[in-house]
């Protein structure tokens, strides 16, 4: 890697990926694709270290300009990490078309622009465990059928298959990772672990009264975002184009057990209340991946235990309230 473009750099995973690239590969030139209206709280600390470039995944001409110009010295981008997405599953039920346009059509536009301007680039494509839907058996392998049960999952399955097709038909060098649940500091407050942590922090400082929850019986394998983005880099370095890999953590709990860990870190007692509005029309309640193939090829092993990840998340939201 010499010159890298990260889409979705303003999100949790994108900002942590930039952190890792800058620390582990100081010789690499890191650029981040941003829309003009993208919030930049997660990347304020990267000003002066990352080159932010304006563009939109749904606009082909803007991507051609970004990839064609390369934004800097050298021969253009050799690696693209495609993380940008509408990633909130419940919202996808309310906005299925927007979700599909952002995730599937956005990827299609990117692949077409790469085919036209940057064919030498390797593209890491961040797919999702949601493409599997409710599995017949666990651990879930990459050979499991794709049966998504949300508009988000459908959009990610379409993106996943497009990435494979662009390699098979056009030799655009795509590598797919199907990421299972991961979290950490900078996670949006609509996602389950972050939502719990924010509500607990609010109760601690007297700005909240109860922790509202949805389905606590869903089973998840948890991964720290810092481990996940390291896996993305390993995939680009050590996996063949056209390949697909499951990536997930080692610790498996129900959502309720994860909540209990967070409540055990609270500085006060927190009441818990089930909110029917947080229930999904169709939930994926069992997500345990087979990650051994990826570990065998790359040597990747998660480093952060779930307890450390949750504490970081809780501290992140405590600091948020302290700054208000």
What is the chains' assembly state? single chain
Sheet/helix structural class: alpha/beta
Largest sheet: 7 strands, parallel
Order of helices and strands: EHEEHEHHEHEEHEEHEEHEEHH
Radius of gyration, in angstroms, nearest whole number: 19 Å
CATH superfamily of the largest domain: NAD(P)-binding Rossmann-like Domain
CATH architecture assignment of the largest domain:
3-Layer(aba) Sandwich
Ranges where pLDDT stays below 50 over 5 or more residues in a row are none
Trace the largest sheet across and list its strands: 3-2-1-4-5-6-10
- Tally of individual domains: 2
Instruction: Please give the number of β-strands.
Output: 13
Count every helix, treating DSSP H or I runs of 4 or more residues as helices. Answer: 10
Q: Output mean pLDDT.
A: 95
Query: What do we call the CATH topology of the largest domain?
Result: Rossmann fold
């Amino acid at each position: 890697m010499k010159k890298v473009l990260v889409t979705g750099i303003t999100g949790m995973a994108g900002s942590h990926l930039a952190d890792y690239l800058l620390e582990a590969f100081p010789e690499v030139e890191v650029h981040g694709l941003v829309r003009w209206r993208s919030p930049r709280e997660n990347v304020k600390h990267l000003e002066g270290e990352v080159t932010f470039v304006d563009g939109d995944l749904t606009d082909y001409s803007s991507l051609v300009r970004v990839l064609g110009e390369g934004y800097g010295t050298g021969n253009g981008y050799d690696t693209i990490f495609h993380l940008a997405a509408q990633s909130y599953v419940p919202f996808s039920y309310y906005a299925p078309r927007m979700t599909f346009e952002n995730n599937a059509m956005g990827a299609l536009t990117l692949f077409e622009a790469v085919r036209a301007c940057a064919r030498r680039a390797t593209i890491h494509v961040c797919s999702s465990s949601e493409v599997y839907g409710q599995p017949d058996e666990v651990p879930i392998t990459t050979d499991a059928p794709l049966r998504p049960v949300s508009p988000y999952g459908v959009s990610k399955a379409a993106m996943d298959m497009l990435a494979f097709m662009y390699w098979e038909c056009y030799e655009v060098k795509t590598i797919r990772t199907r990421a299972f649940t991961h979290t950490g500091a900078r996670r949006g407050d609509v996602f389950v672990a972050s939502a719990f942590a924010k509500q607990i922090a609010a109760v601690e400082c007297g700005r909240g009264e109860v922790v509202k929850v949805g389905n606590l019986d869903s089973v998840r394998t948890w991964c720290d975002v810092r481990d996940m983005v390291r896996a993305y880099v390993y995939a680009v370095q050590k996996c063949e184009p056209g390949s697909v890999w499951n990536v997930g953590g080692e610790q498996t709990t129900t959502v309720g057990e994860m909540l209990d860990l967070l409540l055990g870190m609270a500085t006060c007692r927190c009441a818990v209340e089930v909110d029917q509005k947080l229930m999904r029309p169709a939930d994926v309640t069992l997500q345990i991946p087979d990650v051994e193939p990826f570990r065998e090829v790359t040597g990747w092993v998660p480093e952060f235990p779930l307890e450390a990840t949750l504490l970081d998340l809780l501290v992140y939201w405590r600091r948020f309230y302290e700054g208000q």
